[in-house]
Amino acid sequence: MLKNLLIITLFVISSFSAFAQQSVNDYKYVIVPDKYDFLSEADQYQLNSISHFLFNKYGFTALKEDDTFPQDLRFNPCLALKADVIKDPSLFKTKMKIQLKNCNKEIVYLSEEGFSFEKKYAVAYNKALRDAFLHVQALNYKYTPNEAILAMGSSANQASKQEIEDLKKEIASLKEENNSQTDADVIVTAPAPNNLEGADTVSTTQETLLFAQKTDKGYQLVDKSSKVVMVLLSTRNPEAFMVQGKNAMVYKEDGSWILSENTEKGEKNTKLNIKL
After folding, report:
1. Digit-coded pLDDT (tens) for 111-130
2. Structural domain tally of the chain?
3. pTM reported for the whole predicted model
4. Contact yes or no for 250/240 (Cβ under 8 A)
5. Which residue of 7, 26, 89, 128 lies most exposed, with the fewest beta carbons within 10 A?
6. How far is Cα of residue 47 from the mean position of the Cα atoms in its chain?
7. What long-range pairs does 153-159 form, CB within 8 A, spacing at least 24?
8. Is residue 58 in some structural domain?
9. Are strands 204-215 and 218-222 parallel, antiparallel or unpaired?
């Protein structure tokens, strides 16, 4: 009887492990936060940096919370799992678990405990974390695209293209409203051109190399002499910006940054040479 119970228990555990592994494989990225809840400051004891390193070591594509995300992840946040480290209370040893949640905040994976009997926090936390990551290593993670998750990205991509078209219409309507600008915050990196006024109405390429510098409301574009040639204001779309003081916008299309201006002769599009 005891032997049969043991066999059943082992079967259930292995089935659960296989399910967890398959679920983790559905996700392309892991996002590591700057700070775990049980810590008092960002990357204390280097636990977040160690987590980032170990996820990558064990086959995941790990990103830090403040990284510039790949385009597919920006359009589809559900491609990523959010990492966390759970510290369990204990008097005589440090115990930690690795947790991964999806975009719906559902727990996809929770590791077994990693632990350490060391007394110094810096040593104990490091050892317990690495011990917990041995269970992550045992998953033998390999990304396998999940059609349902990828479909979310397709919808987001179409929505983004529609939003760019809507923004173009909005710019046209702003031609007679000099003070109307968007205040939404967005993170982007993109540079722009010199002598934009008076250019042809046909599509052109801006050869001048420009650099993007982050501001409170978006980015400013500067040339090699650090002269500000354009100020970009954030929108809801991370790859589309309003141009301050101009009836224009900058957006990304097919991997290139495009300056789209409404002029008296019609719409003028200029491809920008941007240094990210």
Report:
1. 999 999 998 988 999 999 99
2. 2
3. 0.53
4. yes
5. 89
6. 20
7. 153/72, 153/75, 153/76, 153/78, 153/79, 156/75, 156/76, 157/75, 157/76
8. yes
9. antiparallel
